[in-house]
Amino acid sequence: TIGAVAADSQGHVAAATSTGGLTAKRWGRVGDSPLIGAGTYADDRACAVSATGLGEAFIRAVGGHQLAMRMLLSGESLQAALDAVLADVGALGGTGGLIAVAPSGEAAWGFTTPGMYRAMASGNGERHVAVYD
Amino acid sequence: MSWTLVIHGGCGAMRPANLSPEVEERSRAGLDNALDAGRAILAEGGSAIDAVEAAARVLEDDPCFNAGRGSVLTADGHVELDAAIMDGRDRNAGAVAGLRTTRSPIRAARAAMERSPHILLTYDQADVFAREQGLEQVDNDYFITPERKAQLDKVLAAGGNFDADIKYG
Fold this sequence. Notes:
The complex is a heterodimer.
Chain A: E1 2-7, E2 13-19, E3 40-43, E4 47-53, H1 55-61, H2 63-74, H3 78-91, E5 96-101, E6 107-111, E7 115-122, E8 127-130
Antiparallel strand pairs in A: 1-2, 3-4, 4-5, 5-6, 7-8
Chain B: E1 4-12, H1 21-42, H2 48-61, E2 81-87, E3 92-99, H3 105-115, E4 120-122, H4 123-132, H5 146-157
Parallel strand pairs in B: 3-4
Antiparallel strand pairs in B: 2-3
Helix pairs in contact in B: 1-2, 2-3, 3-4
């Protein structure tokens, strides 16, 4: 799975996710990536989110939407909300990762697997590419 | 206000058996390329929705990642592609599932968002929609790499179950 989230200089956010799914999948199995609110979500009132990992757990957790609503309704910070969603996914027996960005440009990521391909760039000159912790 | 772009290329148990140093280097280069594609848009004052599409398209074309070319295979040896895109300005969204011939699923998702009254389009008719929108079509073989075929063979040889130790994707 691959994904991208962005906040532009006008303070708008967007999310994109694309995937081939699981090896040897059958029966027309669809994971969380194309399910709006599960693996992909964007809302200028909160954040943009893209997920990767065990799709069934992210669907049950409604991961992307849950992250945004934690911020919007509970006032959680971006990183705290992201960590809480990953904990919820874990409680459902899943592992994976999330990337997220707020309209302010604040960014967050996290994962419960040994590694996650990830990268970040900003207008402030930040640029990071990482795989492991 | 400044801009920010964050991308991912999947997660999992990557070391040591599943990832050679060469593959890791190619993957890091792919992430760099995707960052550049999105950065070029955002640094010029472009929109977040254009930036995430541009970054995703680069990663879909990179065989190091499980999306587009380089995707994992279904049990019957095909590639089926899913994608979604969402705009935070108005919560408009588009998604596709089960594509087999559309080269860039994220472009199909955006076309669904902008040029259809629907959110989620699926399987052969989603490819029909993409084709009608003028999006590039390819044979399913285009998406298949020898590494992914070998992974499928290994999973099938182990019974085809989604064992955590042999799961790819």
